[in-house]
Specification:
The protein has about 325 residues and is mostly helical. The chain is built from 14 helices and 2 strands. It folds into 2 domains: about 40 residues, no CATH class; about 230 residues, MetI-like fold. Helix 2 crosses helix 14 and helix 5 crosses helix 8. It starts with 9 loop residues before the first helix and ends in an 8-residue tail after the last helix. The N terminus is likely disordered.
């Protein structure tokens, strides 16, 4: 070990300077082992929580997804029978197809709103920039249940001001998907905007000055310089949006009592799994549905990252 080695302590460097000897190999190994133990002690609380509240429940859920409850024999090993049933279940497939359509329509809108807000805030240097950032982020700070209840009041055909002003029922089968998309967009656009704004703040300002010298205007700088340079952040928030969309649950579940005919028990895969478990006591089948939904989320996210692997730094 040399004096320039990063593992050499200040005490060891002092010993070398005054003519002392370096610690033995056993001493260095003892110090490294002690550092490793210290590091594991720091991560131990998180590891315990991860195992207790994520890995063990996932393992138990996967186990029960392989069994089937019968009246005669009780719990019997069904292997992949529950998964085959889910693949053939038209209600489950309809729910997956519905959230895929919802995500295909809603994700570009949400990312577009977030990117536009981030570009506007990044281009504004007045004292109102902080106020605008806070106003855009506040809807994300409101719990999804509370926000949905507020929008449910606004959408209500009996007491809602939006229905009274526009003479439109926002909770019918023709409009409910757009109404849910509006709730989700304004709930999450502020979070995505903050992520994109942080990425914009990390860009070198000299590039903007050079572009202005070359005759570029604010719109050209935003579209041709800023947006391509934060492509990695755009891909990241898009993946978050895809994952959240495929896990769609709280908003339609809270609005379901207002119009059960439009938001049925199989409206989304998560709602379908919830009712299978807690309304019909089909816990095994519900666990299989949940794991299939997780597979859909993984495949959808991977496909998006694979398609956009050359446009960002994410691999």
């Amino acid at each position: 070990m040399t004096i320039d080695d990063p593992l050499t302590t200040a005490a060891e460097r002092s010993a070398v300077r005054v003519g002392g000897s370096m610690p033995s190999g056993a001493g260095r190994r003892h110090r490294l082992d002690r550092q490793a133990v210290t590091g594991w002690l720091f991560v131990a609380p998180f590891t315990v929580l991860l195992v207790a509240f994520l890995l063990l429940p996932l393992g138990y859920a996967f186990k029960i997804s392989l069994y089937r409850s019968t009246l005669v024999e009780g719990e019997v090993f069904a292997y992949l029978g529950n998964y085959r049933q889910a693949f053939a279940d038209p209600e489950f497939r309809a729910g997956v197809w519905r959230v895929l359509i919802f995500g295909a329509l809603q994700t570009p809108v949400m990312i577009g709103v977030a990117l536009l807000g981030a570009l506007l805030v990044d281009g504004v240097t007045s004292r109102f920039a902080r106020l605008f950032r806070l106003a855009a982020f506040v809807p994300y700070a409101v719990p999804a249940v509370i926000g949905t209840l507020m929008w449910g009041f606004l959408y209500s055909p009996n007491t809602g001001p939006l229905s009274s002003l526009t003479n439109i029922n926002f909770l019918t089968g023709n409009t409910i998907l757009a109404s849910l998309g509006n709730i989700v967009t304004w709930q999450w656009a502020g979070y995505n905007m903050i992520v994109l704004y942080a990425a914009l703040q990390g860009l070198p300002r000299e590039i903007y000055e050079q572009a202005k010298v070359d005759g570029a205007g604010p719109v050209q700088i935003a579209l041709r310089i800023k947006t391509p340079m934060v492509s990695a952040a755009i891909v990241l928030v898009t993946v978050f949006t895809i994952v959240g969309t495929l896990q769609f649950f709280a908003e339609p579940f809270m609005l379901q009592p207002l119009n059960p005919g439009a938001i049925t028990n199989d409206y989304t895969p998560n709602i379908y799994a919830y009712h299978q478990a807690f309304s019909y006591q089909q816990y095994n089948y519900s666990a299989a549905i949940s794991f299939l939904l997780g597979a859909v989320v993984f495949v959808g996210s991977y496909i998006f990252l694979f398609v956009n692997r050359r446009r960002s730094a994410l691999r």
